[in-house]
Amino acid sequence: MEINIESQLQLIAELPGHDERAWQVAWNPTKPLIASCSADKTVRLYSYHLDRQDSSKTVFSHVTTIPTGHTKTVRSVAWAPSGKTLATGSFDSNVGIWERREASDDDVDPSESDDWECVTLLEGHETECKSVAYSGTGTLLASCSRDKTVWVWEVQPDADFECMGVLMEHSQDVKCVAWHPTEEILASASYDDTIKLYVDDPSEDWYCFATLSGHGATVWALAWAPQGDYFASSSDDLTIRIWQRTAKYTWEFIHQLKGHDRSIYSLSWGPGKGTRDSLGWLASTGGDGKINVWGISQPSQQGSGNPTLTSRLVASVSSAHDVHDVNSVQWCPRSGFEDLLSTAGDDGLIRVWKVIPSSIRE
C-alpha cells in the first residue's frame, strides 16, 4: 500500500438532533436529501444545496423528523433507487416502508417534503433487524437479522411486497446485506466470520452460491465497487478484504487493507472525484473513531501475471466524532457531489466531510 496522503477530510457540516446514538446515514440517490436513523427510534431528513454566494460551499438544513413508530432502535435506513421510498430496519424485528404522503413534481423544493407515512410494515424476522438494502433496479429489498436469516422481498405496485425467499445459510447474527450495483446478486456478512453470496434460480428459489471465508472474526460491513467486479468486506479482525470476480459466480480474495485499531463497522465505495484511482474511493470507519479514504486502482496488466490491485491512503481523519465510535460512512451518489461523505456516530451526530487537496485546507 502506498502511503502518500495528498488530501484531507474537511468537516463541512454537523447535523445534530438525535437524542441517542446515530446508527446509519443514507444519501438519497436522486434528490438533495440525507436520511439518518437512531436508537431514539426516529429518522431525520436533511436537505442540502450549493451556497448562492460561494458555490464551493454546501449548505445543509433539517427538513423533518419522522417518528417511525418502531418500538425499538432504528438500526438501518435505505433509499430505493427512485429516491421516492425509504426503508427502515429496527430492533423491533420489523421493516418499515416510507413514502411522502402527497406525491409532487420532482422540481418541488425538498424542504417542502416533510410529510412521510409508513405505507407498509414487513414482518417476519424473529428478532433485531440489522440491515436493509434495495437492489439496483429497486425491484427487490433485502433484510437481515440477529435471527441468522436473510429475507428477500419483491417490490410490487401499491406498496405491496412479496417474500421471495428466507435464506438460512449463516450460523450466527447477520450484520449486513448489500446488492451488486447492476445484477441481482446479494451479499451478506455475519458474526460467523463469513460472507455469503446469493442469486435467484428461475426454476427454484433464492440460494447461496458461494461462501467466502478468510476473516478471523465478525464481518460487519460490505461495499460493492461501482463497476461491480469487486467488493470489500470489513471485520473485527481489523482488516478490509477486497474480493474480485474471476468467473460469473466466483469471487476470490485479492487485496487487504489495514489502517484501523478497532472493529471496522462501515464501508462505502464510491467512484471518487477527479481521481487517478481507476476503481474509485473506498471509505472505512469504526470503533477507533477514524475515517480512512483509500484510492483503489487496477494497474494495466503486462504479461500474463495474475491481476493485482494497488491501494493508497488518500485521506484520513482521527476522532471524527470526538471520543465516540463511528457507526456508518457513506459517499454521496449524486453527480457533482462525489467528494462528499457523511458519517453517523455514537454521539448522535451526523457529520458531512469533503475530500479536498491538503494544500487548500482552511
UniProtKB/TrEMBL annotation:
SUPFAM superfamilies: WD40 repeat-like. One of its GO terms (biological process) is iron-sulfur cluster assembly. Coiled coil: none annotated. It holds the Pfam family WD40. Belongs to the WD repeat CIA1 family. Essential component of the cytosolic iron-sulfur (Fe/S) protein assembly machinery. Required for the maturation of extramitochondrial Fe/S proteins. This is Probable cytosolic iron-sulfur protein assembly protein 1. The lineage of its organism: Eukaryota, Fungi, Dikarya, Basidiomycota, Agaricomycotina.
